[in-house]
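Table S2 (text version). Query chain:
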Amino acid sequence: MAAERGYFQIPNRQLDQQQQSGRGDARVSAVAAPYPPAPHPPASPAQSTHLEAPQRPRVPSQTETPPSPPPFRSSPIVPPPSPADMYLSRPPDNLQPRSLPPLMPSNDNEDYHPSDGWRLRQHHLQKDQLWERICEEARQDAMLEPRLATFLHSVVLSHKSVEAAFSFLMAAKLADNMMLGPVQILTIFREAYDDDPSILEAGLSDLQAVIDRDPACSKYSQCLLYFKGFQAVQCYRVTHWLWQRGRKALALAIHSRVCQLFDVDIHPGARIGRGVMLDHATGIVIGETAVVGENVSMLHHVSLGGSGTGRGVRHPNIGHGVLLGAGVIVLGPVSLGAGSKVGAGSVVVSDIPEHCVAVGVPAKIIKCSLKGEPVREMDQCTDFILDYVI
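Corresponding structure-token output:
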């Protein structure tokens, strides 16, 4: 008895026994199906001993609605958990972030004069310490706000350095479908940081300056991720690097996008020192030939505008440690001495000596030989009103 292609033959002797015992049907073919048929329930005496022919399936008429097929059920595809899901799935005990040591306050008794230029102070962090602090702040914020976890992981925690994180952030913000894509901008920023280490050094000094002078900023990560004044200055430093190397078209393209995104207009040709803080920053304009010293603080709507149509110097020269209040306008190639202070809404069209206070339209000098440093105090009201008796 040999099998052929999955079929098997029933011997004649076995078939005769089945017919004689009444368990089989004489009309059963000697060749069976490749799969055995389903067993039938035992027939009652009233029923016929022969198997009935199977009924053909009923075909619905044209007026009837055919039955809908059973729904297709496939195994669901479970995506990998996102950083936000990881933080949300943790037990409540693990949601408590690790406490960070408080920032070291500045020493008021330290012999430090911002009008002399930028230098590292005792409480300032080194680059590696600063990056470690930023990462720990990002982890803390991700635990407290799981909806920000994906953003914080992609911008901060997935990178190995502050310049890599900032390059990625600016590439995501400045990318434009018509002009420059994110990969192109990322490459430009990384190329600038690799070629000129002073760009990063100046950026870290700007970051430290915001922590020192802005009481509204309590974390380094806040300034890095959310303060558009700081971000606009760092974008300027990259465009200035392009400008100096003759790549003016690309510098102006990025500068145009920065103006559109941040509402801050810093020409790539301007020269800006270290430790600069643009507080709020909205509406700030710095012209092509302007020079801004180190440790300078300016508030929103400050304009360093030019005068004339010549090719020479047309914009102001701002000394070290100068404080420019909100809405200050400085026009033409005038000089503001180191440690000077200009009140909000003033219009400066003439030189101001060192450590003097000027206010008004046009601005007039009302006090000289200031003992304090304006950018250390950030006082927007004192010294602008002459002594008087009511």
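Notes on Table S2: Residues 342 and 358 are 5 Å apart (CA to CA). The chain has eleven helices and 15 strands.
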